[in-house]
Amino acid sequence: MANRQFPSCPLCAYWEKPNRRGERFQLGWGGITLNIDRARKLIDELGLIPQPIETEQLRSFVTWPKPPEVNEAGQQVNHIPRWASINYEHVAHVDRTVPIIIATFELDGTGRHHGPIDGHHRIARALRDGQLEIPAFILDEQRTKKIMRRRRTER
Questions:
Q1: Is 35 part of any domain?
Q2: What is the pLDDT along the chain (155 residues), one digit of tens a residue?
Q3: How far is Cα 124 from Cα 11, in angstroms, rounded to an integer?
Q4: Which pTM value belongs to this model?
Q5: pLDDT computed for residue 90 by the predictor
Q6: Do 5 and 90 touch, CB atoms closer than 8 A?
Q7: Which strands make up the sheet holding 112-118, listed edge to edge?
Q8: What is the 3-state secondary structure (H, E, C) of 69-98?
Q9: Parallel/antiparallel/unpaired status of strands 32-35 and 148-150
Q10: How many angstroms separate the CA atoms of 99 and 96, rounded?
Q11: Per the structure, how many domains does the chain have?
């Protein structure tokens, strides 16, 4: 997802690194890591077609549009989103037409959950711009398990 037009953006610069580690999404609970690169490969192999998702349903994952608050030292200090940190500078130039990825999983017997694992900045931009829907690849529970790794619990 690198964007050579915005070399000053720290996120775009990261994706330009030739030896970067594969992209992962770490859930803060349950010790779960989801491999985004593997998800993209799976989506391509299966020929999945993106589905339109109402953007408003995804608001809680990016907690937009609260504007950034800055302390005296110039550091961004507004609340941390529930699901992913948002770099407001990066939001301005992401391509919101690229489909996001939504995973389906069960956490410790609390039922089935759905959540975006790729595309948080695209969601934030769509919300900011008033876009009603955003394209999304939706991985069912079986496909999500193929890209999931759980941290081993200590005994």
A1: yes
A2: 444 556 677 777 666 665 556 666 666 555 678 889 899 999 999 999 999 999 988 887 876 445 556 667 766 555 444 456 777 788 888 898 999 999 987 766 666 778 898 998 899 899 889 999 999 999 999 999 999 887 655 44
A3: 15
A4: 0.75
A5: 84
A6: no
A7: 51-54, 133-138, 100-106, 112-118
A8: CECCCCCECCCCCCCCCCCHHHHCCCCCCC
A9: antiparallel
A10: 7
A11: 1
Amino acid at 36: I
Residue 118's identity, in one-letter code, is D
Task: Sort 82 into a burial class: Cβ within 10 Å, 0-12 / 13-18 / 19+.
Answer: exposed
Structure tokens at 84: 């992913």
| Residues of the domain holding 76 | 10-150
Residues pairing with 150 in the sheet: 32
